[in-house]
């Protein structure tokens, strides 16, 4: 898609980030970001990753009929978006430091690749918000839990595989789980490598 490269570059420079820092925060390759800023063209996955880092809607980045969408941010929202991005730059998974609300959901995640030990993550997020776990230079999984009226949880996952330069979309499974139960996704890559993703959800 065509995106507003001037806006992206301006927001990056306003935060005093290098291209390398923004690329790490978004989970994309430096060369991918360089192409975005020079050509104004990006895949849907790259655009979504950049929107998540800047804390804006995807439509903010899109360019239609030669004109970019405009957005107005309050100072408070800018501070929240910048704080989240700084945590990503530090290599940490987002974990809110505030007191957990009744609507928060905790995800106990285990990511396993063929013949490798599982890597475990504990993520606590507000309902309906995304949370990320990854195997560096291999697998990136974005979970979005949404409580349903019957007490179950709709768990959606967006799975990306590393292609040597960038994470590219691979699969988007979803399912309904009960509080405290495990959800398991088994995936096989084109190279025959098998990935096992196990998630246990609980309200906190």
Structural commentary:
The protein is an alpha+beta fold and 204 residues long. The protein folds into two domains: 85 residues, lambda repressor-like DNA-binding domains (434 Repressor (Amino-terminal Domain), Orthogonal Bundle); 100 residues, Immunoglobulin-like, CATH 2.60.40. 28% of the residues lie in helices and 35% in strands. It has six helices and eleven strands. The strands form three sheets. Strands 5, 6, 7, 8 and 9 form a five-stranded antiparallel β-sheet that branches. A hairpin with a 3-residue loop joins strand 5 and strand 6. The protein is globular. The relative contact order is 0.13.
Distance between the termini: 39 Å
Computed over alpha carbons, the radius of gyration is 18 Å
Q: What is the CATH class name of the largest domain?
A: Mainly Beta
What gross morphology would you assign? globular
**Helix-strand string:** HHHHHEEHEEEEEEEEE
Mean pLDDT: 77
Helix content: 25-40%
Q: Which blocks of ≥5 consecutive residues have pLDDT under 50?
A: 65-102
Record the SSE blueprint.
Blueprint: H1 5-14, H2 19-26, H3 30-39, H4 44-54, H5 58-61, E1 63-64, E2 67-68, H6 75-89, E3 104-113, E4 119-126, E5 131-135, E6 139-147, E7 153-162, E8 167-171, E9 174-177, E10 182-188, E11 194-203
Antiparallel strand pairs: 1-2, 3-4, 3-11, 5-6, 6-7, 7-8, 7-9, 10-11
Helix pairs in contact: 1-3, 2-3, 2-6
Write a brief structural summary:
With 204 residues, this protein is of the alpha+beta class. Helix content is 28%, strand content 35%. It is built from six helices and eleven strands.
